[in-house]
């Protein structure tokens, strides 16, 4: 069954990463509880409960996908840094990561370096199918090298081979997310979204219409410093 999307605002993502770091049974192969199925299950449950404080529709699937996405993005940036260090002739040529949470997830870099050596010893990663069919004590162990193979999205793509199309689309989507950098427009969007959520349904619909109308006028270069939104006075209309 397709899962709806869950948005992770920066405030939530910071808390999510910090909590993920505390549960080293999910990422540290040297941890004694790394292969402890129940411990990993409980850890993912705690992360899910955190996300549900921001979106009640969040599930374990959303949490597992987000972990996959975050580590895949950091892995790409980490690889770019390592490659640039080998080729750089001076420190200024070393690649600078663009992900704002790159340093926050730096604790997994040791796992990056040791992954190839320990790959055969790692527990089998949990796919979405496993999540949906196993009993509640399902495990979660996502080896960094296998993330792209298990990344899935909520939008189902119709095709003769839907699973392969799904994985390919998610890989492209993940790459786009890795290169996107939050700016003032993202902040404005989050602010507007928060205000819209607090409006009554009828007011929200009208507000969305006005916002879209303004954006349309802006795209048509029809806005200027004198542009205003006015509401006709019903009493004057009756007189006329």
Automatic annotation (TrEMBL):
InterPro entries membership? MADF-dom
User: What SMART domains does the entry give?
Assistant: MADF (SM00595)
Matches recorded under Pfam families: MADF_DNA_bdg
Q: Where is the composition biased (Acidic residues)?
A: 126-138
* Residues of the MADF domain: 15-113
Q: Which residues does the annotated region (Disordered) include?
A: 115-144
Q: PANTHER family given for it?
A: DPT-YFP REPRESSOR BY OVEREXPRESSION, ISOFORM D-RELATED, MADF DOMAIN-CONTAINING PROTEIN-RELATED
* Protein name from the UniProt record: MADF domain-containing protein
């Amino acid at each position: 069954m397709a899962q709806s999307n869950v948005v992770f605002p920066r405030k939530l993502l910071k808390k999510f990463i910090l909590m993920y770091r505390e549960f080293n049974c999910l990422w540290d192969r040297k941890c004694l509880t790394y292969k402890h199925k129940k411990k990993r299950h409980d850890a993912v449950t705690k992360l899910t409960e955190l996300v549900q404080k921001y979106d009640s529709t969040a599930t374990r699937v959303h949490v597992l996908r987000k972990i996959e996405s975050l580590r895949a993005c950091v892995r790409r940036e980490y690889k770019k840094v390592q490659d640039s260090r080998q080729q750089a002739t001076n420190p200024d040529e070393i690649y600078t990561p663009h992900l704002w949470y790159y340093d926050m997830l730096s604790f997994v870099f040791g796992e990056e370096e040791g992954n190839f050596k320990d790959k055969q010893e790692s527990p089998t990663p949990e796919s979405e199918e496993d999540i949906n069919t196993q009993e509640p004590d399902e495990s979660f162990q996502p080896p960094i090298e296998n993330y792209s193979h298990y990344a899935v999205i909520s939008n189902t793509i119709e095709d003769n081979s839907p699973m392969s199309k799904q994985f390919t689309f998610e890989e492209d989507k993940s790459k786009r997310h890795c290169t996107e950098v939050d700016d003032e427009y993202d902040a404005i969007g989050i602010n507007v979204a928060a205000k819209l959520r607090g409006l009554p349904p009828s007011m929200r619909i009208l507000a969305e219409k006005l916002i879209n109308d303004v954006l349309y006028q802006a795209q048509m270069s029809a806005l200027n410093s004198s542009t205003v939104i006015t509401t006709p006075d019903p009493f004057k209309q009756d007189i006329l």
